[in-house]
Amino acid sequence: MTSPDTRPHQGSPDRYPAGSAAFPHRDLTGLAGLAPWELLYLLDEAQQWVELNRQSHKRVDRLKGLTIINAFFENSTRTLLSFEIAGKRLGADVVNMHAAQSSVKKGETLIDTAMTLNAMHADAIVIRHQSSGAVQLIADKVDCPVLNAGDGQHEHPTQGLLDALTIRNAKGEIAGLKIVICGDILHSRVARSNIHCLTTLGADVRVCAPPALMPADIEALKVTPFHDFNAALAGADVVMMLRLQQERMEGQFIPSPREYRHLFGLSLDRLARAKPDAMVMHPGPMNRGIEIDSNVADLADRSHITRQVEMGVAIRMACLDVLTRKARGLEGWA
Amino acid sequence: MSNPGPITFTTGRIVLASGEPVSGALRAADGRIVALGDVAPEPGDTVINARGALIAPGLVDLGVFTIDKPAFHFGGITRAALMPDQNPPLDRPSTVRYAAQSGKPDLWVHPLAAATRGLEGRELAELALMREAGAKAVSTGRRWIADSGTMHRLLSYCAMLGLTVITHAEDGGLTGHAVATAGEMATRLGLPAAPPEAEALAIARDLTLAGMTGARLHFRQVTTARGLALVRAAKARGLPVTAGVTPAHFMLSDIAIGDFRTFTRLSPPLRSEADRQAVRAALADGTIDVIASGHDPRGPEDKRLPFADAEPGMAGAETLLPLTLGLVRDGVIDMARAFALIATNPARLLGVNAGQLVAGAEADIALIDPDRPWVVDSDKMAAAAGNTPFDKQGVQGRVTALFKGGSPVG
């Protein structure tokens, strides 16, 4: 394991290799295995878009003439909207394909769908799919960059990056922070991408879940597992709550939502065990009153939930920009 | 095919039940072995010079899902026990009778009768009638019988009939829809996973029931250290229990699923490296009795899918022999035991007069160059589909000629 890059993030062009070597990948299918400087490069690239998005005129023409297909095989509102806005603010032509309206429902195989999308000469394809590994399967078959917008329980890399950007912008530095991720770790691709990203950047990551929702050998991902949420919260800088993914659960994993809340819900009382300035995060959509109380989610100075959504657009702009450089004749991936 | 004339294989190395292969010749007539060792061809014999190749029994493959003659013949397989998981399932005498005739003359298919109607694990199928129709053993198919009462009745009934019950050892409640073994790899990939103890749980129950009923029980695949320890202990107690495995579980661990490659999606799933080593140890100490191919060719419609959506199974007939010979090369087992695992023991379990080179046995003979190197290539396989987890892997050992009942194949 490479030790994380802990240099301060202001004005340090020497923290990653020059040119295309800063992110030498065609696709972004996951954050596992990425080097610290590759993650930092994407975070730094996103910063310019954070600033652009706060202006009244929010459009550039960097991706003018390029076609981006958002192929969503699983229902999504927030992520799809975020990718669509990201593409449009960069000036690309963005087309959304919903599985519910496509021939996928008529029995066409995933590979056939991928080949069809490929034949339309997309310059990037953004894919969400309900099966782990599906995005890699498509990436292996198409000629353009592929962005994973969530595959099964595997990864959701742009969510991991946007969470890291949210934390960095609030805390200045990720290395050394105590970060608690609590909830349905087993079924969560968000948890996996966050674990890979935050541990690679040097954070002390704790994961907390009831045993049935904790994946086996999670320690191998360099995190500390907890079943006692109160213990996990002690001294935390960041508390990241996950949604109970009841639609992914096969069989009964918890006795009831109210019992889950009793043990794993984030209340004001519980939050007091974390540091006084601890950030509260949630990837959304929230089940208010189950994993997070409304008065915690709405804490003006502590809750960063809407900030996460804001960072999401900037991160997706950065990823689309970096991955389409070759299509634009710039020095991009090899 | 008419009755083959007498044939003598000369200057080969004969694989015997124990010890190293011995130089000599083997003579067959009327489809059976008549003499071996220091024998000479008689006038009128067809003489085949083995040129130093191994003279070995044709392989008896215990538990294949498809009759795939080109692949079987490539792999030296002259008899294959067909799993009942067919469409329709082998759960009635007529389908068993048809399956039993489906390979002749150059491949003998031994149907395994479905233990329960529709393989659904509820009502016993007509096992005695299927035995009359040619079934050589009874199988629960790809699945475990969850209901202990049903399994108890099945085992006691088969004990009466003298039929071995071949079962799948994974507790279905614990396994659910898992496609991987719980552990670091499944956690990284986000794949539905079940603890490896699902196997030991199933074995513990079925051993208890076998002990109560006196039935002969064969676990088609035992792939974990805990499961193997239970089998080892049961054998020590004298229970008539046997165990099998496929090369996947002594060659690969779950590291191999790392790139979501569906050719490594198997049932049971690939295990940890520690379990792989336990399988090798069990091959060495005699706990495992049978190595089978589990041959299950699957085309792109079943395999070119996301990992959890793909069907399990591998095309294994062509690699059964070389990967088993690899165990000899690695010093895990000797040559005699290799052929006990892939021919003698499965033939004995099925109750057929084959699987070893003795006078009076069927002349199912493979001439084998045990050292010839070749590369497994999923695009160029004899099998109906190329779903091998050993794609592009170099192996050694190749059948150079094959005879079924004294007649040349192919």
Structure description:
The complex is a heterodimer of chains A (334) and B (410). Chain A is α/β, with parallel strands linked by helices. In chain A, 34% of the residues lie in helices and 13% in strands. Chain A contains eleven helices and nine strands. Chain A has helices at residues 36-53, 78-89, 110-119, 134-139, 157-171, 189-200, 229-233, 257-264, 268-271, 294-297, 305-323, and strands at 67-72, 93-98, 124-129, 146-151, 178-182, 204-208, 224-226, 238-241, 279-281. In chain A, the strands form two sheets. Chain A has a five-stranded parallel sheet. In chain A, α5 (157-171) packs across α11. Chain A starts with 35 loop residues before the first helix and ends in an 11-residue tail after the last helix. Residues 1-11 of chain A have low confidence and may be disordered. Helix content of chain B is 30%, strand content 23%. Chain B has helices at residues 69-74, 93-101, 127-132, 148-161, 172-175, 184-189, 197-213, 225-236, 247-251, 273-285, 300-303, 320-329, 335-350, and strands at residues 7-14, 22-29, 32-37, 46-49, 54-57, 59-64, 77-82, 108-114, 137-139, 165-167, 180-181, 193-194, 217-219, 241-245, 290-291, 365-375, 394-404, 407-408. In chain B, the strands form three sheets. In chain B, strands 1, 2, 3, 4, 5, 16, 17 and 18 form an eight-stranded mixed sheet that branches. Chain B has an eight-stranded parallel sheet with strand order 6-7-8-9-10-13-14-15. In chain B, α2 (93-101) links the parallel β7 and β8 (108-114). Chain B is globular and about 65 Å long. Chain B starts with 6 loop residues before the first strand and ends with a strand. The interface between A and B is medium-sized, with 26 and 24 residues.
